[in-house]
Write a structure and sequence with these properties.
4-stranded antiparallel β-sheet, 11 strands, 15% strand, alpha+beta, Alpha-Beta Plaits, RRM domain-containing protein, Nucleotide-bd_a/b_plait_sf, RNA binding
Length: 393
């Protein structure tokens, strides 16, 4: 006979169980995070050791794993800084028998852990791609009486209720140490740390025993199904992976990308906007911050595109003598389009010329010097995102 009891979570199916009483007001940190947040919100970052010794050596040299030879405190800080961009998390570093590091990243929300898993092998740290896997942890144990007597649900509640919330339990028939049939209970704790504390507490208990089982997660409560980011129903082993290597490489961050300005929109002086910016920045000694230069170049090129579109819109069409710009007579007097009509009348005087080097020089000088004044700057550069980075150039 097998009898299962599943204890519903009072906080809901996607929330953490209520904390143990002594953990109610604890501040989350790396030591107690697995006793405060759900096991499904924990991921493992590190190794996947092949069976072959030869492959293991190759794996150590070229694998997707944490860097070797870094101080554990430094490694924990760097891993936490990397994954904190996804959500609040707490990192614990552990070394295996081969002295290879592995990190348990305990997020505070299950959705953040799912996001980290969706990235797969596309997060890089210390010049190494990280391998991320689900780490539910072992939290199931066998509970029974030391004298071989059968246990009941009341025994479980009385003996284990103070150890932390229980997610599920199952009662089964088993042979005791005297060769007689009895009833034992397999108990799954809601939190990994509560399970570890309970196993330690019952080592010297004279009435009951609690033996940890080599079972990860909850064998009685399946995890709520979530559609994976990339689902493949093929039975071909070569297509079972969540992503192909080509897709993973495309998803990896390859730094700053910028669509170059077409030649017809460049200044009519034979030099591009980028050439002018770099020349002026070099003459003023501003060329040390490459990211700032790229921001300035992109802002000026965006202004060039916008100016080209305004000229194209205000220029009469070749097959029609009327202007493309809507006439002010189409709208009622005093409407919101009056200001637009005023802009149109100004632009009908003729297309504006492309910016000359003098215009670029003054604009570059304003942008690179960090001047708060926006007078004389193009409309797009006056709303440029804040460059109040403490890093001086």
């Amino acid at each position: 006979m097998v009898l299962h009891f599943i204890f519903p979570n009072p906080n809901g199916p996607y929330q953490a169980y209520p904390r143990r009483q002594d953990r109610q007001f604890q501040e989350p940190n790396a030591r107690n995070a697995q006793g405060l947040f759900p096991p499904d919100a924990c991921v493992f970052v590190g190794k996947h050791v092949p069976l072959s010794v030869f492959l293991a050596i190759i794996w150590i040299l070229t694998s997707i794993s944490l860097a070797i030879g870094i101080n554990p405190e430094t490694l924990a800080r760097d891993v936490q800084e990397k994954f904190s961009s996804i959500g609040r998390c707490h990192v614990k570093i552990k070394l295996d028998k081969r002295n290879l590091p592995g990190a348990f990243v305990q997020f505070e929300k299950v959705e953040d852990a799912d996001t980290a898993l969706a990235w797969g092998e596309n997060i890089k740290l210390h010049n190494r791609w990280l391998r991320i896997e689900r780490a539910r942890g072992k939290r199931t144990a066998c509970f029974g009486s030391r004298d071989g007597a059968p246990v009941t649900q009341d025994h479980v509640s009385m003996a284990l209720g103070w150890q932390g919330p229980i997610e599920a339990c199952g009662f089964e028939h088993a042979l005791n140490q005297f060769g007689m049939w009895t009833i034992i209970c397999k108990v799954t704790f809601a939190f990994v740390d509560d399970f570890k504390d309970a196993v330690k507490a019952f080592k010297k208990n004279p009435v009951y025993y609690l033996i940890p089982l080599d079972i990860e997660g909850s064998p009685l409560v399946p995890r709520p199904y979530r559609q994976p980011p990339y689902y493949n129903n093929s039975n071909d082993p070569s297509t079972r992976r969540r992503r192909t290597k080509e897709i993973a490489d495309l998803m990896r961050d390859k730094g700053h990308t910028r669509v170059p300005l077409p030649a017809e929109l460049q200044p009519k002086t034979g030099h591009t906007v980028e050439e002018y910016v770099r020349k002026e920045a070099h003459s003023r000694g501003y060329d040390q911050d490459e990211q700032l230069l790229l921001d300035v170049i992109q802002d000026l090129e965006n202004e060039q595109r916008a100016k080209h579109l305004r000229e194209e819109w205000s220029t009469p069409s070749s097959d029609n003598s009327t202007a493309r710009t809507p006439s002010a007579s189409m709208y009622s007097s005093g409407s919101a389009f009056d200001s637009f009509s005023t802009d149109v009348q100004i632009s009908e005087a003729g297309p504006q010329t492309q910016p000359q080097p003098e215009y670029l020089e003054s604009t570059i000088d304003h942008l690179l010097s960090g001047d708060s004044s926006t007078a004389g700057l193009p409309r797009s550069t006056s709303t440029i995102r804040s460059r109040s980075r403490s890093k001086s150039i």
